[in-house]
Amino acid sequence: MLTAGSRQTVDACALADISHLQHVPRRYWGRYIATALILAAVLFILDAFARGQIEWQYVGRFLTAESIRSGLVNTVVMSILAMALGVVLGVVTAVMRVSSNPVLGWVARTYVWLFRGTPVILQLLLWFNLALVLPTLGIPGVWEVRTVDVMSPFLAALLGLGINQGAYTSEVVRAGLLSVDAGQYEAAKSIGMPRMLALRRVILPQAMRVIIPPIGNEFVGMIKLTSLASVIQYAEILHNAQNIYYANARVIELLIVAGIWYIAVVTVLALLQSRVESHFARGAGRASARQ
Questions:
Q1: Alpha-carbon distance 133 to 178, whole Å?
Q2: Is residue 228 a contact partner of residue 120, using CB atoms and an 8 Å limit?
Q3: Cβ(154)–Cβ(71) under 8 Å?
Q4: What is the pLDDT along the chain (291 residues), one digit of tens a residue?
Q5: Which H/E stretch holds residue 138?
Q6: Rounded distance, CA 97 to CA 114, Å?
Q7: C-beta separation of 97 from 236 below 8 A
């Protein structure tokens, strides 16, 4: 058995044995190679844009052109309205999905299956050409209007984007509702609170922490998704940019202008989304502390 003195002697010898060794820092060759490749790709892209046939003065000239500004406003307005319609439809459909009524559940599942299973551009074209299926709208003999007079590019884009968004939002809301502990439902039921009141006062507020982040991402996606409405002649920013470069043949310049505005709007929305998420996260933290 080693005594305390002998152990100290062994330790000292071990230190003496490695004292002559030189410390060599670890080399992260994978990081170095990846960084070099990324820098090379960025420089290649910058050089391509610098050498390409791009007249940058046209980018600055059309960045604040009236047609581009009006298209930007139409893009933002359509995104807000379509997202609002999608959220309303999504909440209603999610409540129908978790309902004990089998008919409501079947209708909700069919709606989600149908509108998630078909491309958005197909839905836009169907709404825009609805007059081929229903020549008139209204109550026969009481009030009727020609579908072609009602189904404008704005309304067709709103219905196509909003109803499609509702199918995706319903799954987000349903996931949020399922994330709430089942005891919350039972507690609301035990005090005689009706189911819908419990959803509005107890369940949905707690589910918002789970619902808000993906809904924010869907909103960001909606900004870019409105570009598909250009195929039905809705005057959003990409459609107006196309009209300009059809006239002056400055294709790349106008596409760059549209891209700059898309990035600007998405950046603002991302900042707002982070603020909203932080707000609901603080609320969740206070609730956890009280528990």
A1: 39
A2: yes
A3: no
A4: 545 555 555 555 555 566 666 777 788 888 889 999 999 999 998 888 777 778 888 888 899 899 999 999 999 999 999 999 999 999 999 988 888 788 999 999 999 999 999 999 999 999 999 988 888 888 877 788 888 888 899 999 999 999 999 999 999 988 888 877 777 767 777 777 777 777 777 777 777 888 888 888 899 999 999 999 999 999 999 999 999 999 888 888 899 999 999 999 999 988 888 888 787 776 555 544 444
A5: strand 136-139
A6: 15
A7: no
Phi and psi for 27 in degrees, rounded to 5?
A: -100, 125
User: What's the first-to-final CA gap in the chain, in angstroms?
Assistant: 55
> Does residue 2 sit in helix, strand or coil?
coil
Length of the chain as a residue count: 291
The token duo for 158 is 């709103």
Residue where the block lists tokens 């309304």:
155
The CA-atom distances, in angstroms, between 125 and each of 56, 119, 167, 226, 230 are: 35, 10, 18, 13, 11
- Euclidean distance between CA atoms 260 and 68, whole angstroms: 11
pTM higher than 0.85: no
State how far the Cα of 16 lies from the Cα of 33, in Å rounded to an integer.
Answer: 38
pLDDT of residue 288: 47
Rounded CA separation 132/59 (Å): 41
How far are the Cα atoms of 74, 234, 236 from residue 239, in angstroms, in the given order? 11, 7, 5
Q: Which two tokens stand for residue 70?
A: 């009006």
**HSE value, Cβ hemisphere, 13 Å, CA-based, for 63:** 13
CA atoms within 13 A on the CB side of 74: 24
Q: Are 156 and 73 in contact (CB under 8 A)?
A: no
